[in-house]
Fold:
Amino acid sequence: MTKFVFFCRSSFLLLCFFCSSGIAGQEAKITEYGIYNDARELIKQTKVVPADQIVRFGFCFEVFVNFFDDNKYMLTQTLVHPEILDDGGWPNKGYNVPRKFKVVNGTAFGCVGYNARAEKEAPAGEWVFSLSDGSDELVQFKFILK
Structure:
């Protein structure tokens, strides 16, 4: 009986470890990144982007989400950046928005980015993009604007 209880407890702990550590979990791959033109074509692969210029930058990704209904899957896109003042003088340091991404065979894919339409919309500093599924961060990518 003692061996059986030990076996059950050990099995339970092992199962908890695998579930919490994401062993089956989210494998992410950045497929491209850098500066894009208005047609959203990559023109320069780089993590360093010119600051205080009109520029479009971002990255494309693939991430396993364990959703096999070949459809769209909701992830949360977050961007944290240096403070930008809008036309009304309100400070903005980023955003957090739900987005649907196409899924094929359990893998979500797409592109995220930022389009500075005026020089003041691209201040120097660290710009951090992330995608999450609930509380699980799946992808994070950083650009430096200078």
Summary: The domain at 25-145 is CATH 2.60.40.2390 (Immunoglobulin-like). The CA atoms of residues 27 and 64 lie 5 Å apart. The longest strand covers residues 72-85.
